[in-house]
Specification:
Shape: globular
Radius of gyration: 21 Å
Distance between the termini: 51 Å
Order of helices and strands: EHHEHEHEHEHEHEHHEHEEEEEEEEHHE
CATH architecture of the largest domain: 3-Layer(aba) Sandwich
Number of strands: 17
CATH topology of the largest domain: Rossmann fold
Strand content: 25-35%
Helix content: 25-40%
Number of domains: 2
Bound molecules: nicotinamide-adenine-dinucleotide
CATH class of the largest domain: Alpha Beta
Number of helices: 12
Amino acid sequence: MTIQTPSPIDLIIVGAGMYVCGKGTGNYGTILPTAFEAYRKGLLHTIHLTAATRKSADLAKIKADELAELTKIKPDIRFYPKKNDDPKAYLTAVDKATHPCAAIISVPDNLHFKITKDFIERKIHVQVVKPLVSTVKENNDLIELKNKHNVYGCVEYHKRFDETNLKLLDIIRQGTLGKLVHFRINYSQRKLIPTTVFRHWVETTNIFQYLGVHYVDLIHFLTGAKPKRVMSIGMKKYLTDKGIDTYDTIQTLIEWESTENKDIFVSSHLSSWIDPDVTTAMSDQRIEAIGTKGRYRSDQKSRGVTLVTDENGCEEINPYFCQFYHDLNDRAMRIKGYGPKSVIQFLKDSADIISGEKTPSDLLGLRATFESSICVSTILEASEKSLMQNNIWVRIG
Ligand SMILES: NC(=O)c1ccc[n+]([C@@H]2O[C@H](COP(=O)([O-])OP(=O)(O)OC[C@H]3O[C@@H](n4cnc5c(N)ncnc54)[C@H](O)[C@@H]3O)[C@@H](O)[C@H]2O)c1
């Protein structure tokens, strides 16, 4: 039997910020290094990297040149806009693409809806960084549109690819924990994220929408349960003192109902972005699941690898999210981890649809589809309502 490899496709990346190529950091982000790896695997023909400004496109080119040196991979990359600043440069890339395309959208949250819609209307498969959108209406509109155009749409929820979470999925499915009672999540990042990295758009989102959503999606993924009611309470102290009008922390309680047997359990999410910049990792994250027969605890910051140097003090490294490793021939670096896995899966799925191997409706299972994101959008909308209305419990549906 011969196994057909789908032909390489073009990839349009929208955004050239921290998550795409490590803008403002000494690193390379997640999306662009993964695109290099996908090119090496023969999945991609041309990469179109689209920013809104010429300056961002130029900075992305510097990162791409450094990546080419590091990985010894030289993909064909086109940068946009070429001359003047142009927030619609991604549409120019659509016109310039010479092969069937897929697109990855990694721009500030409030632009996700419009740009995703533009791609779907052009029949281009899309992966959107989280959160897909923040309202149920926009989420439903995108589902309707992608169905109309027979396009595949998914969200880049990479925690679904982390083995520590896949282990928990299996433990829950086996019934090892008994009946689920409570999930407790602590997830925080350094002050530099709201004060520097996202300064220009930080007030259009909040810490629960930006960070907390990861584990909201994860609980839905792990349990298949649906939210019944949501309550959020936020605190404003540090960031408002710096002239930034957003919450330092948001604590959210969600009551869930199992779709199988109507059993109820609760999750509590403490989301924060005022960790000291000297903390030992960008993200501090822990999840605990308590059931009637047992408890699962996963420290997703302290993965057992610590580096201490005179220059940077103590750092805790997560070797599993998105890191460069030497290749087997010891000639170049390769990006690996559950972040790249989630992006590469999308590219493979898109190539399979384009080659006619699969249809968008074949791509369900454990994937973070637009349909599965309805749960997150519902909770985001309810949380916002709770924050606006004196922290009331908001009933769903
Ligand atoms: N999944 C994760 O772990 C993770 C991590 C960080 C960020 N994110 C998400 O990724 C998205 C981007 O975050 P970031 O960290 O890269 O932010 P960032 O502020 O560093 O970059 C955003 C980029 O989008 C660009 N942009 C804005 N409008 C554009 C347009 N019309 N066309 C092309 N580019 C445009 C900006 O120029 C900027 O370079 C956000 O939705 C964020 O929530 C996800």
